[in-house]
Specification:
Order of helices and strands: EEEEEEEEEEEEEEEEH
Radius of gyration: 21 Å
Distance between the termini: 45 Å
CATH topology of the largest domain: Lipocalin
CATH class of the largest domain: Mainly Beta
Strand order of the largest sheet: 1-2-3-4
Number of domains: 2
Structural class: mainly beta
CATH architecture of the largest domain: Beta Barrel
Largest sheet: 4 strands, antiparallel
Length: 187
């Protein structure tokens, strides 16, 4: 018997968006009945967006098959699908609050602009070494976390800064290597 497992969840003051391992997505509002939709792909990223009236009215869901699906809330009706052929979607961020324009980070390190109003709906902006763990925008600059590395890039892809955060930790290999342990026999 196949048990359904929650793989992603996002809780807001208006309700909870839950994604299951079989592709089922459920919006459970605080008041009213829940709505369900089967994406037929493993959801990897959840992002909700507030509309002009201040209510949450859109969900952007990235999948392991490389798609980003935009759904209405609360009914979970499909608005559009963006198809990126660069592995699993690992991170999503809203790029422009006035428009449905997103940045998506992939398993293979690609950063894409997704914009339904442009002729080129999916535009590859740049890539980094390693998978994208998270994305956020600060004053037009893209901040990317990839494992221990933090990248800061401009939207044209030029590198502003790369920082290895692991360098701040001291290496204790020498301390551990000079110790010897004697394991006693259990007999």
């Amino acid at each position: 018997m196949n048990q359904r497992t929650i793989v992603r969840s996002l809780t807001t003051d208006e309700g909870t968006l839950v994604a299951m391992n079989d592709g089922l997505v459920v919006w459970k509002p605080n008041e009213g009945r829940p709505f369900r939709l089967n994406l037929e792909a493993l959801p990897t990223v959840l992002l909700v967006v507030r509309g002009p009236m201040g209510n949450i009215d859109l969900a952007a869901i990235g999948t392991a098959s490389g798609h980003v699906k935009l759904l209405t809330l609360p009914r979970l009706e499909l608005i559009t699908t963006f198809s990126l052929q660069e592995g699993s979607i690992r991170a999503l961020v809203l790029a422009n609050e006035g428009k449905l324009q997103f940045l998506a980070g992939t398993q293979r390190g690609g950063v894409w602009r997704l914009d339904d109003s442009q002729q080129t709906r999916e535009e590859h902006l740049f890539g980094i070494e390693g998978p994208v763990s998270s994305l956020y925008l600060v004053n037009g600059s893209v901040h990317i976390q990839s494992g221990w590395y933090r990248h800061e890039r401009s939207l044209d892809g030029s590198s502003v800064r790369v920082e290895n955060t692991a360098e701040t930790y001291s290496v204790r290999r020498q301390k551990r290597l000079d110790r010897s342990y004697i394991l006693q026999s259990p007999a």
